[in-house]
Amino acid sequence: EPLTLTASLRPEPIPGEVEVCFANHVRVYYRDELTHENGSCHLTSHRIAWLSNKRKQGSKVPVHMFALPLKRVRSYSPKKKLFSSPKIVLQLLPTTPLQPGVEPPFIMLSFRDGNRDKFYEQLNIAYQNRAWYKQDKSTKKTGGEFTRVVGIKGLMQQEKKRMKEAEKEVNEAFSDLNALMSNAEKMVKLAKRCSDGMAARDNNEEQDQFVKMLGEMGIPSPVTRELAGTKYHEQLARQLADFMAHRLTAMGGMITLPDAFCLFNRARCTEMVSPDDMLNACRMFDELGLPVTFRKFPSQVMVIQAKSHSDAKMAQRIARHIEKNGAVSAIEISEDLRMSLVLAQQHLESAEQVGVLCRDQSEDGLFFYVNMFLAKKMTADSTGKELARRSDRLPPLPSPK
Question: What is the value of pTM for the model shown?
Answer without folding.
Answer: 0.63
